[in-house]
Each structure stands twice: as C-alpha cells, then as structure tokens.
Design a protein that fits this description.
By secondary structure, the protein is mostly helical. It folds into two domains: 208 residues; 73 residues, no CATH class. Helix content is 61%, strand content 3%. The protein contains 15 helices and four strands. The strands form two sheets. Strands 1-2 form a two-stranded antiparallel sheet.
Length: 393
C-alpha cells in the first residue's frame, strides 16, 4: 500500500518558488526600530536628561518666574518680566550658547554610549551595517533635543509677549512704539526737554535747558563743550529744531526697539536655535565616535563654543582669516535673524556713535556660511562613521 502524496497548497508553492526572504540587515539606512532603540537608550540616562531639561527649560523658566514675581510685588522697582529686550537677552545669552552645549553633550554621549557600556560588539554580531548603527544615533538625538529646545523657547516667547511693557523705554524716556521717522520727529517737537536731556546725541545743549540734576544733559554721549564755556540760550524754535534733528539722528537705534518680538521674528529665531542645536548634536556624535569616549569630547565642544569661537569670530588674524571663516559658530552667527543683537559682538543702541546693529564679526556671505555649516555636518558625520567602520569589535 503506497503512501498518499503530500498535499501542496498554493501558498506553500508560492513560498517555495520565491525563495528565502531577502536579508536587509546589511542596508546602510537605519530602520525605525533602530532609531527608537537608540532614542530609548539615551532617555534612560536620567542624569543626562535632567541636565538637558534644566538647561533648556529650567533656566529660562526660573529667570522669568522670578521677574514675574518681582514685578507683581514691586512694579515700580522692577520692570515687566517680558518684552523685546528680555527676549533678545535670553535668546542670544542663554538659549543660543547653552542650547549648543547641551546638544553637543547629548551628541557626544550618543556617539560613544555603545563603547562605554560594552554594547558595540553585540551590535556588530547582529549583522547590522555599522553605518546604519551610526546614522541611527542622529535622528534619535534630534528627537530628544529639538522638542526640549522648542519647549524652552516657547516659554520665553509666551512670557515676553504676554508680559511685555505697555510703553517703550528709549534712553530712559517713555516713547510711543512703532513710530516712523517723521512720527518720531513730530513727537520730539512736542517733548523738547526729554529729548535734549536724555536722548543720545553729540551737540552742545542750550544753557537754558535744565535737566533732572540741574543745568545740562542727563546720561548719554552729549558734548557739553570746553570747560568754562557757557553755551548761550536759544529760542524755543531753535530748541525744537535741535530736538527734531536729534530724533532724526537717533531713529535707526529707535527703530530696533520693540515692545515685544514679532511673530515672524519668533519663528525665524526658533528655526535658528534648532539649527544651532542640530549642528551641536551632529558634530558631537561624530567627535564622540571618533574619540570613543564622552568626557574629552564634551570638554572640546565647550571650549569650541565658549572660548575659541567668540575669540576667532572677532579677532582678525591676517594669515588665518580664511581658516577663521571656517568656524561653524561664526557661520551660524551670520545666519542669525537681523532683528537680534549679534551673539559675538554688535551694538543695538542709538545715537551718533552707535553702530546701529552693525556686527563686529568677521565678514562672511550667507552662501559661504551655509557651505561651512554643510561641510561641518557632512565632514564630522563621515569621520564618525569611518571610525565606527574601522573599530575592532
């Protein structure tokens, strides 16, 4: 009695003809699962995550809360918690610098975590592409640092808009906001004493104008004339003409003062801060992978951002100017929104002697700045990936 032939279904027949499923582990493109795993590994480092949250969200929040409480308790002694000046100070003085540093610390950790925890060998034996293992760290780090920077920046924007002052203070004088040049001159013609006593200008003050501390001007770069020389009194018409001329002269500085940041400025500033964080993270990943450990890499990134970049962005070294223009910090500073004070040098003040926002940075075109940033991102990614591919498992 012969055995019955095996029954072959259509599904089995198709599977046999198709052969084994292709092995995609050798692809250099990281999968969603690899990125999610790297992100989870970074989030589990509680000390690192606490430091990131404290710096990106905690510092600006505590500063603004203290200002809100101080203004609520003693409004005459402490000004409003928000406004354009507070916004620019927090963006250029805190979020820009510290955002880069914490992003670099996260990147250096992501670039070296597999080695420091002894997991690199286990990742290699899975058959995954080393390039894919390296590239998975970049989107994983961005998924952490970008929301944190956005959250801290959102807190700053909200307070600076909703707790902004109701009157613009320019050179110690309450001036209506948003005036045109002709509008400021018209206002100055009706507020001659305030303009002559407090506005920043370079001209002798009429002898019959008495300011807060007696005859003569208040604070400001005002030329009083040689000692012992009495400036003759002038007519009211001449005083109004002088006030109008001072207003015309100070308008470039006044035009850079706002009660609160505009929506377009906040959007552009937020994208600029996210770019700075992305640069810090990607360069940190490459440096951490190249060195194979985190501590030295983080120290080098801090030295680059806090010491080397401010110095070489402003000091002109004749034979190294092109090398100085290759600094990524200088390049990102040149992409800064125009309404912000320059992060490494500049002047927002008004008056004859002010730079009217002119940056003291080394000159560099926007196209060159973009090329420098792209070169840093591609170069450090290539170095980090090359070192991982060559490292012994």
């Amino acid at each position: 009695m012969s055995a019955a032939p095996p029954v072959t279904t259509a599904r089995h027949a198709r599977g046999a003809s198709a052969g084994p499923a292709p092995d995609r582990r050798g692809s250099w493109i990281p999968t969603g699962g690899m990125i999610a795993t790297r992100c989870m590994e970074l989030r589990k480092r509680r000390g690192l995550m606490i430091a990131l949250i404290v710096v990106t969200i905690g510092i600006p929040t505590v500063f603004l809360v203290v200002r809100l409480l101080a203004h609520a308790i003693a409004p005459k002694s402490y000004g409003p918690a928000g406004g354009y000046d507070i916004f620019t100070a927090l963006v250029t003085g805190v979020l820009y610098v510290f955002g880069f540093i914490v992003a670099a610390a996260l990147g250096c950790t992501a670039g070296s975590i597999d080695l420091t925890e002894g997991m690199f060998r286990h990742l290699v034996v899975t058959g995954r592409s080393r390039l894919a293992i390296y590239l998975a760290r970049i989107p994983a780090g961005l998924a952490i640092i970008w929301p944190l920077v956005a959250a801290g920046f959102t807190v700053v924007c909200a307070v600076c808009v909703f707790a902004a002052p109701t009157q613009l203070n320019y050179d110690g004088v309450s001036v209506p906001a948003g005036l045109s040049s002709a509008g400021l001159q018209t206002w100055a013609a009706h507020h001659v004493d305030e303009v002559l006593c407090d506005f920043d200008y370079a001209a002798p003050i009429p002898g019959n104008i008495r300011c807060g501390n007696g005859p003569g001007p208040g604070p400001g770069a005002i030329i009083k004339g040689p000692p012992g020389v009495v400036v003759p009194a002038t007519s009211p018409a001449a005083e109004r003409a002088l006030a109008v001329r001072i207003a015309r002269q100070d308008y470039p500085g006044y035009a850079k003062q706002f009660l609160y940041p505009s929506t377009s400025l906040m959007v552009r500033t937020g994208l600029w801060l996210e770019l700075e964080a992305a640069v810090g993270l990607i360069v940190g990943v490459g440096l951490g992978s190249l060195l194979g450990q985190r501590t030295v890499a983080v120290i080098l990134m801090i030295v680059l951002e806090v010491i080397l970049t401010p110095i070489f962005s402003r000091v002109r070294i004749p034979h190294l100017i092109n090398a100085q223009r290759g600094l990524v910090g200088l390049a990102t500073a040149h992409l800064e929104p125009a309404a912000l004070p320059a992060v490494f040098g500049g002047d927002m003040g008004g008056g004859m002697n002010a730079n009217h926002g002119t940056s003291l940075l080394l000159p560099e075109t926007r196209a060159v700045a973009i090329c420098v940033i792209v070169a840093w991102l591609v170069g450090w990614t290539a170095l980090g990936a090359w070192r991982m591919a060559r490292r012994d498992a």
